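S.,

Sequence below, as promised.
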Amino acid sequence: MKKIQPSAPRLFALAAILALVAMPVLAAPHQVVKARDLDPVLAKAAATQKVPVVVQLRAGATPPADIMAVSGSKHASRVGAISTRLTPAAIRALMARPEILSVSPDRAVRANLDVAVPATNADVAYQRTGLTGRGAVVAIVDSGVTPNVAVPEWQVLARADLVDANGRAADGFGHGTHIAGIIHAMAPDAQFVVVRALGNHGEGSLSAVVNAIDWVIRNRELYGIDIVNLSLGYAPQMSFRHDPVNIAVRRAWAAGLTVVTTAGNRGRDGMMTINAPGNDPLVLTVGAINDFNTMERGDDGVTTYSGRGPSYGDLVVKPDLVAPGNRIKSALAPGCSVAKEYPEKVVDGRLELSGTSMAAGFVSGAAALLVQQHPGITNDTIKTVFMKSARKLDGVDVFARGAGSLDVMAALEMTEKFPAAKHFNSSSPLVARSRSGVHMYLLTPPAGRSVALTGWEATYGNDSVFGESTFWANKRV
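The prediction came back faster than expected:
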């Protein structure tokens, strides 16, 4: 296997990025962090206008009574975030309050939409192991799921509609049903919990996603949820350390959930185009490949739209891996808006869509197979096994392909070598510059202490999770 070494142009580009990026990362002990897009929103608002915001509390803080007293305020208790509507003056006054970590506008969040099963080796895995995902439960936080032939209602354990209080989490957009169909194709006996956070045109809000993740955490044990699929996102507006959705996915990870999300579809804009919450070191972030509709895996390539790392501001090495995402045919939600707006996308009664959303669905389905194989498997083991077993794409930049392309059979074989029930630090590394050059380091939860890696070549070559042998080194600094 060819080693991927840092070329001079790549090192120069990384050094330039590290010098130019100016997103605030670490705040003062009691400084409230504002999202980059908050001030423009407040500047446009009238003095008496109620502006929707998400207020992220510091760990252990009690929800402020004055904010909770505002009509419509909602506290996501497991995440520690409050969605509310306040005047610009009231929002600015929050900046002096020690119990508050960050404030964000309740911005729009959208679905990441822009022969795949053989391309992941899932068909080989079934032939050799007979695994179907039985016993695994996947929560889909999306536009809902409409029952269909691919995803029958009896496989749906529960529904929660955070868009329509009187709704049943049906899919008016078509995206969530499509994702569910992909997961079903990979793991036909897996069961679903459907949490609707996106509307009939793929639109949603920051608060809806935060509350959806909070709902999943609260109901994890009731429904036995193992995996959360988040095929949605937005351009980061603050560090992952302070962003409410990032904090929500880290709480979900800490609760034992395997969080699978997308790299986003802004890759044509170049590097640093990873979406939030895919910029979080803990979660499993998936980019998209084009399999060119062939079973041969040698012709696979990363799509032009798939988000590229490192992440903006924090410089997290992402994506973690890639999976098929181009022109994927899957389940069609009858009457959905995507099919009405793009009738040419309906092919033989199925819907053909492209995007990193679809790639995330393949990884969630593959995770369900690992859960069936080892019912006590941890999210750390799932992430590490997928990355270590991924098929390397020679000549493709690490910030485009991560550890490589999903290989389900190789992952299933590799789990036999890991202590499946063990938790460890599976965080994706961050890039940093020092006087001696460009380096990688990890944050050790929960203390946040740095862990030095053994250098660029060891991280991306054949001696690391991005290569063929062991995963991250564990040398403290």
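The longest strand covers residues 437-444.

Coffee later?
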